[in-house]
Amino acid sequence: MLRKKPLAAALMTIAAVPVATPLYAQTAPQSTQTAPQNSPPALQVAQQTGQQAAPADAASSTAPETAALPAVNVTSQADAPDFQADVSSVGAKVPTALRDIPQAVVVVPKAVLQSQAVSSFSDALRNVPGVTLGAAEGGQIGNNINLRGFSARTDIYLDGFRDRGQYYRDTFNLESIDVLYGPSSLYFGRGSTGGVINQVSKQPNMKPRADVSLQAGTHDRYRTTVDINQPMTDTSAFRINAFGQSLGSTRDEMHNKDYGVAPEVKFGIGTPTQVTLSALIQHNRDQPDYGIPPLNGHPAPVDPKTFYGFTDDRTIQDVQTVNARIEHRFNDMFTLRNQTQFSHYSTEARATNAAAVLTGPLGTSPALSNGNYTTLPLSSLFVRLQGKDRNINDHSVYNTTDFQGKFATGFLKHDTLVGVDLSHETYSNQSFTATTPGLPSNTLAIVPLVNPPYVPRPANYREVATNLAESSANDVGLYLNDTISIGEHWKWIGGVRWDRYEASIHNSINQPGYATQTNYFTSVRTGVVWQPQEWQSYYVSYGTSFNPSLEALTLTSGQQNLPPEHNKSYEIGSKWDLLNGGLSVTQSLFSIEKTNARTLASDGTYSLDGDIRVRGYQLGVAGHITPKWQMFGGYTYMDGTILKSFDGTQGNVPANTPKHMLTFWTTYDFTPVWQVGGGPSYVSSRYAANNNLVEVGGYVRWDVMAAYHQKRYDIQFNVLNLTDKKYYDALIPSDGGRAVPGLGRTFLATLNYRFR
Question: Where is this region: Disordered (predicted)?
Answer without folding.
Answer: 30-64
